[in-house]
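Ticket 4471: requesting a sanity check on a complex prediction with iron/sulfur cluster. Repro inputs:
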Amino acid sequence: MGLESKLINDGFFTTTVDAMAAWARESSVWPMPMGISCCAIEMMASGDPKYDISRFGSEVMRFTPRQCDLMIVAGTVTYKMAHVVKKIFDQMPEPKWVIAMGACTSTGGMYRSYNVVQGIDQFLPVDIYAAGCPPRPENLLNALMQIQDKIGKTRVKDFPDPPHTSIDEKQGELSLSKN
Amino acid sequence: MQKLTKDDVHPKIVQALLGTNVHITIDDALENEMILNMGPQHPATHGVLRLLLRLDGETVIACVPELGYLHRGYEKMAENMSYLEFIPHTDRLDYISPPANNVAYALAVEKLAGITAPPRAQYIRMLLAELARMCSHLVAIGALAMDVGALTVFLWGLREREKILDFFDVICGARFTTSYTRIGGVASDVTSDTMKNIISFIDQFEEKFDEMERLLNGNRIFIERLEGVGVINKEDAIDLGFTGPNIRASGVEFDLRRATPYLFYNEMDFNIPVYTEGDCLARYFVRADELRESAKIVRQVIDKIPNGEVMLNSPKKVLPRKTEIYTKMEELIHDFMIVNFGINPPVGEVYHAVENPKGVLGFYIVSKGEGHPWKMKIRSPSFANIQAIPHLVKGQMISDVVAIVGSIDPIMGEADK
Amino acid sequence: MKELLKDKLTGQFTTVQFEFIEQFDELTLKFDKSAIVNVCAFLKDEDGLKFNFCEDVTAIDWATRKNRFTVVYHIFSMENKFRLCLKVDVDESECSVESVSSIWKAANWAEREAYDMYGIIFLNHPDLRRMYMPEEFEYHPLRKEYPLMGIPGAIPLPKK
Ligand code: SF4
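Returned structure tokens:
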């Protein structure tokens, strides 16, 4: 691994705190399994002993949005459900990412009908679209690895809503200024 | 349960609860009932079922399920596509056991078109349907165990399910959404090697399932959380439209594989497990026994399967083989006509129901002689099963609600359609 | 079974016109909608018939016909292992039919679904709400005039 080979020479290496934090964030993505229909079963399968999502540090599926930083939207989103998905997404703390798993969430898929949202990007910022109906678990793992890459490259200044500004400023405590 | 009143609580606690806000006037803060919302995003509601519960303390007084969070408009879509195009959609009805839905749909359309698939195709359908039943019950038992707090069985169940999905992968080309049947047969043949592998899977499965059962049947927590919970008697079960393992747990011996035999089920030797208690534990036992029976049927099917074609030779109704389309003019024309204009069954109406893992799945098709149905209605088992939840949870503790929902095993894909 | 059914029904209901249709091994019974509750209660309780299991209630929209809708009931007798289909016509101008949910509880939700999808009112139904669509929704999606892709803006989406 990279780390040991660097340490073996002098016993230290240089980096920035930002990069270190990104590395830590990247390797323990906690997903919020927004399992709605068939794709949810494949998402479940990616956690089973055969595919084992814990190899990528993401087996901690939390059903409460407050503890997650990645939302996997797995399944057909109907208009009625869209409000629920949005509400849950809004409750997740920044920074957060979204995987649109499957054809349905990406484009409406095979459901060109009156009650299915034709692509969740109409109301959510999607980072990765996983293709397939359903995507095989390998494909979901691939999407996860890509999102890890993306997270690893993200620096604090890239956050749309930097975490320190979301601390309640009215109370006046802990109001770190951005500069 | 004894109700908690104001007198049981120290006045200081009540004081702290009410605070200094004098605008609130509550006769008794602890005497009032509460409305609790459960779902549609909840780990124990198996998808997007939403339950609104009215609680008195811990006891459920009333419950109203709300559906429609996964209403995808199947029936409208079916009116706008040909009979063949709808097959992939049937996969996503009960998405734990796609091949069983494929079979149900193909049988309904074949009844309407007046054709019968060749015997080998029917045996293959039976094989796939039973494997799907095993998949479904493995997930159902695992999820029930997980709902009441035992995770191991779930992971072991998924491990066995993966092995079945591998067979689907080999047979159908897709591990999950199989779309395997065609009108008049099945898409491709099953090789004898695959059948041998399935037999060896069944051999080891029975041992593995014994292991799983030992984990549950000797587990006091599991038994005590399910025994006597969510009881429904025979009359109510029939009246509320319960089907599948749920009704058989209430002492009704009702299984369409025996009542109105289809495919070759009347030549198979299997039992219908029936329990009379009608509680969550009985529903679990029925599923466990059915798993064994399904394994038995799979053995017999592979034992008895005849040789021959897997697609009917009927040019106006059934898709010709690909090799012939590429070499013969007539087949090419038939293929073109069927794909573009559909199979045009006669004018009429047909209802065909089969015994799916969750219960009775029926397709009601109205044809006006065109390439697409005039109307299609899907009678889904989970829809009727969910209807009984208010009846079952009434008077139970709130923590039993998850056990009851888990033991009913609803799938929202088919309940919402 | 079919003969017995015909005899019993015509014996019991002398004023109701029954039309028996046989197709694909299935028996369909067609009659006027005013008799639906009485006929259903009779079919459920009569010895020898005992249609105790209501599988499904749905409707068909014929779009251009005079009696625009047909309400269809599929009932099953567990004792005789026999399935029967009942049909009553409903016109658009008087778009209602008596509910059978007092006879079979299973019909409750099925009727709600038919109401949601076709707008047929089931009289004396204990709880006639929409089944799938939001309560504010103004249309009935399975009617033939409703477009497959829906009417844009009929159901709102959350803001981005
Ligand atoms: S993409 Fe396919 S498998 Fe996934 S939810 Fe949609 S229909 Fe189901």
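Notes from triage: Chain C touches chain B at residues 23-24, 26, 28, 52-56, 58, 60-61, 72, 74, 78, 81, 83, 85, 104-106, 108-109, 113, 117, 130-134, 141-142, 146, 148 (CB under 8 Å). Leaving this open until the requester confirms.
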